[in-house]
Amino acid sequence: MEQGKSGRALVVGGDSLVGSALQVRCRKLGSAVDVTSRRPVGQQDGGTVFLDLGNPDFTPLQGGRYDAAFICAAVTSMQVCQAEPARSRRVNVDNTLELMRRLADRGTHLVFLSSSQVFDGETPMPDEAASTNPKNEYGAQKLAVEEAIEREGLPAAVLRPTKVLADRPVGVFKGWFEALAKGQPVQAATNMALSPVMVGDVAEAAGRLAAGRHRGVWHLGSSDEIGYFDAARLMAERRGLPVSLVKGEALTEAQVPQIYRHRYVTLRCEKIARTLPMPVRSARDILDTLFAGFPR
Fold first, then answer.
1. Distances (CA, A) of 28 to 3, 6, 24, 76, 166
2. Does residue 135 surpass a pLDDT of 90?
3. C-beta neighbour count of 77 within 10 angstroms
4. Does residue 68 surpass a pLDDT of 80?
5. Are 206 and 18 in contact (CB under 8 A)?
6. DSSP-assigned states of every residue in 36-97
7. ∠27-32-34 over CA atoms, to 5°?
8. To 5 degrees, how large is the angle CA 54–CA 51–CA 196?
9. DSSP string for 145-180
10. 233-285, pLDDT tens digit by residue?
C-alpha cells in the first residue's frame, strides 16, 4: 500500500483506540479498509468482520486480499493478563500469530502493535536493539509475538509505542479535569511518569511503516517524560483550573504493583524520526496538544 495511494487495508481490532484512528487515516488516503470487531454482527457497520481472537473463526477473512494489516486487537489490561495468563496468551500470542501467518501467506504486509512493556524500565532510553526483559505478563506476551515474527521471518513491522493518549478527555485526565472543574481536589502520583504519544501519531507511524513495507522493530514516544503530578498541574494551568487543588501522593505497592511501574519510561526514537520521518515531540508539547482540546 503506497503512501497516498488506494489499496485495501485490514485493521484487526477496529474498536480499539489505535484501530479507530487507523480507520480514519486509511479513509482519508482513499484506501479501502475492512475492520474486525468482537461486537455482535447486528451492531456492526459495513466493512466490519466479526472476529474474536479468544475463539477465532478465520473463515470470513479467507477471501480477502489485503495490501496491509494492522494488528491492534489484544487483551490490553495488564492486570487481566497477569490474573488470567492462559486465556490472555491465547488471544495475545497464539491466535494473533495464527492470524498473522494466514495473512502473510497471502502477501499481506503486517504492522504489529507491541508495547514498551517488553522492557523492565531499569535502563534509560533503550533503543530498538536494547535487551528486553518484561516484568509483567502483558509485556511477556507482546515479546513472545515479536520473537515469533523474527524467528519465522514474517513480513512485519513491530511498533512499540509508549503511553498512547486519545485526542479527547478519557481516563485519568478526564477524571482530573472533571474534579478540578467542580472545585474538588485530585491526587496525582509523584512516583510514576509517562512518555506520551498522541493516538493520531501512532496511526500515522503505523501507516507509514505499512506504506514502505518496513520490517523490524520501531519505537515511538515523546523525547522525554513527565511525572503524573506535574502533568496534572500542567493541565490545571493550561485550562485555568485551580493548581492548588492538585495534590501529590506516592503510590504504594497495593495501589499499583511494581510490575506495572517503570523507573524509566522514555524510549529512544531516533530510528523512526530519521527513517519515516516522524516527529518526536517533548512530553509537555504533547500534553499541551491534548489539553488544548479539553472543554473550556
1. 11, 10, 6, 27, 19
2. yes
3. 12
4. yes
5. yes
6. EE-S-GGGPPTTEEE--TTS---GGGTT---SEEEE--S---HHHHHH-HHHHHIIIIIIHH
7. 100
8. 80
9. HHHHHHHHT-SEEEEEESEEE-SS--HHHHHHHHHH
10. 999 999 999 999 999 999 999 999 999 999 999 999 999 999 999 999 999 99
Q: Which domain holds residue 26?
A: 8-166+196-224+266-281
Residue 134 · residue 119 · CB < 8 Å: yes
Cell 480507520 sits on residue: 23
Residue 41 domain-assigned (yes or no): yes
Q: 108, 10 in Cβ contact below 8 A? A: yes
pLDDT digits (tens, 9 = 90+) for 178-208: 999 999 999 999 999 999 999 999 999 999 9
- Look-up of cell digits 505497592: 253
Q: 213: helix, coil or strand? A: coil
- Do the domain assignments include residue 256? no
- CA-CA distance, 231 to 237, in Å (whole number)? 10
Q: Is residue 27 part of a domain?
A: yes
CA–CA gap between residue 139 and residue 112 (Å, rounded): 14
Q: How many domains does the chain have?
A: 1
CA separation for the pair 169, 173 (Å, rounded): 6
Per-residue pLDDT at 1: 46
Distance CA 259, CA 257 (A): 5
The pTM (predicted TM-score) of the whole model is 0.95
Q: Is residue 174 part of a domain?
A: no
CATH code: domain of residue 277: 3.40.50.720
